[in-house]
Amino acid sequence: MSFENLNGRYTIFDEYHDFEHARRVAEWKKQCGNLLAFIADGVAHRIGDAIPDLGDKLWAALKTFSEAETNEEFAQVTASCRRIVEHVSDELFPPIEGEAEGRKLGTKQYRNRLLAFVDETRKSDTSIDLIWVSTKTLSEQMEKLSDLANKGVHSEVYRVETRRCLLRTIMLLDDIISLKVGAFEIKTKLNFDDFFEKTFGL
Questions:
Q1: Which of 78, 94, 131, 192 could lock 152 by a disulfide, CB 3.0 to 4.6 Å apart?
Q2: Do 168 and 31 contact (CB within 8 A), yes or no?
Q3: CA within 13 Å, CB half, 199
Q4: Cα–Cα dist 103/170, whole Å
């Protein structure tokens, strides 16, 4: 057994161990939770307009995470995060033959297609530097997320890494929202057969 040296932490001599400090930390945690909820709400509503089934996919990933007990289950969550990003890319910028800015835009190049989508939406922006920085930042975020998601394929992943993967997925989607000029196109998936069957029994 070994003992940890706290260096006077949590004692009466600790300048940051009093009620006021504890209150500020508690308020920070509450406000931070509200901020994350605000970001998640924006993702669900704005990108959800263009991708109606995105909410179900995010819900399934979060539900699997909350119930996960084994490394295999955590790996399923990270794989779901990667599939969510791929699905968003397919919906916002479907695969095409050819290239843009030297990047292939085929089925497997989903990250390139997301970057192309952002570039396309910002063509009206007069700030070339802003476009370059935005695209570079988004590319870096996708690379970090991909590294986390792929870890579940090649090695063991744990709860803390899986949580980070989920949060990075939400933040990546929020980045796409922030870089989109104007509203997303509203797409719906209408099912008239179910309506007539339930209403008229046809």
A1: 78
A2: no
A3: 6
A4: 25
Using CA atoms of 136, 142, 148, 151 in order, give the dihedral in degrees to the nearest 10.
-100
Between helix 159-179 and helix 110-121 the angle, nearest 10°, is 30
Cα–Cα distance, 88 to 82 (Å, whole number): 10
Q: What are phi and psi of 51, to 5 degrees?
A: -130, 85
Q: What tens digit of pLDDT does each residue of 44-94 get?
A: 888 888 899 999 999 999 999 999 999 889 889 988 999 999 999 999 999
Structure tokens at 132: 């370059």
CA–CA dist 19, 84 (Å, integer): 43
Of 132, 159, 139, 6, residue with least CA distance to 73: 159
Q: Which residues pair with 104 in a beta bridge?
A: 99
Q: What is the phi/psi pair of residue 103, to 5°?
A: -110, 135
* CB-based burial, 129-162: b 16+ in 10 Å, e otherwise: eebeebbeebeebbeebbebbebbeeeebeeebb
C-alpha radius of gyration, the chain, whole number: 22
Which amino acid is present at 113?
A: R
Encode pLDDT of 90-139 as tens digits: 999 999 998 887 889 999 999 899 888 888 877 655 554 454 455 677 77
Strand ranges in the chain using DSSP code E only, listed in sequence order: 99-100, 103-104
